Task: structure prediction
Amino acid sequence: QNYTDAEGVLLQGFLSLPPPDSSSSSENSNTAPLPAVIILHDSSGPDTYEQQRATLLAHSYGYVGFVADIFGLLTVKPAADAPWSESGAFVSQFTNNATLFTQRIQAAVDYVRALDEVDETKVGMIGYCLGGTGIVHYLNMYGEVGSDGSDVPLAGVVAFHPSLSNGVGPGPFGSPSGKIDIPSLFLTGGADFLTGPQAMAKLEEDMKIGSSDDTGTEIISSTPWETVRYAKIVHAFSNWFNETGPQAMAKLEEDMKIGSSDDTGTEIISSTPWETVRYAKIVHAFSNWFNEGGYDERVDARSWHSMTTFLEEEFGFGLSDYSSSLDSPEEQVEKVNYTDSMDGDHLLTGYVSLPEGMAEGEVLPVVIILPHAMDMDGPDRYEQQRATQVASDVGYIGFVADIYSHDLKDTPALELEELYHSNTTKYLSRIRAAVDHVKTMEGVDGDKIAVIGFGFGGSGA
Result:
């Protein structure tokens, strides 16, 4: 599909339409305009990889997929095996020129919005590597409604492993020209040298920029955004939780890397997978299956899932089902007593929820829930309802652990929370007691036990 930018430069994109009756959403039909997803390519240009992504979006999700062209059809690009000194210089004419970069992106947006097959109110955009960098440029320049000359903002944008190496101070990533009204998702790698902590901190601060009230007080933006980081995946190191501070998060992430040592004493980084996710107020090329050295199938699948669920929400599909699944259910649990053998058989009271229709002799995974707070009767209704959700929605056994409910008779809850925060040995002993008890329960698969925690319980996990 040929089209032009504002200066008349010839561009060539690639369009993928859903086959007849392939729409994945009941709200979609081939006779009605469809949501569209624009794909911004990486530094190799709009090639087979992005075309396959567009085809996936069209055939598997019922969207219109469109691969944008940033470089230009007649532009002479460096050879595939060109040294970085040459290919990097070529790419920098876009990364260092936000005006040119966003001009090419806007040309694709305007073209897609005008397609008969497209619902212009449901246009999203995703970008890989160089394209992810373009997403950030676009948010800075056209993130505010109306700034691109249209009253219809993009429904949402997703940046996969963008380069933010110049994200702090002078350089191509200045501050946004206004507040950002476009919901955004950023998916980055935990070992990505192009997404450092300062760059990510600046990105998150930029996403918070809102308007000012009549007194001049700045109002933090209410536009939803998310950042996700995947462990040990190359092309990003970042500070995700401002509440806990960069030092605390850096320590947490370093702790997650701790592994064993080989025979020579050389430390081996832990192979255990981890993720950190941050939700706002409210490395590299890991997703490219042609990248033999950096492709990661697991992270590709998880990031693709994050993107598709994000776009479904922003396009307005599946929200009613999603919301209904989060309605607090009536707790359906059974109280069980057990003890902490490491603490003189201290009495504990937990709650178990079994999936309806669980067959005799059936063995299932179990999710242990560490509570945030306690009332006088032990873990409160919130955790009991979560256990019920685990059983009813997922089909696992839900078990609410007890940390200190029987101590509440003698000690206020806040004092107990402080006690357990300062006494890791006792806290871990309580958690281990729950794990040991669950392993003895009938119907539990002892090899498939997970522990989750909310608030104070999250600290325990």
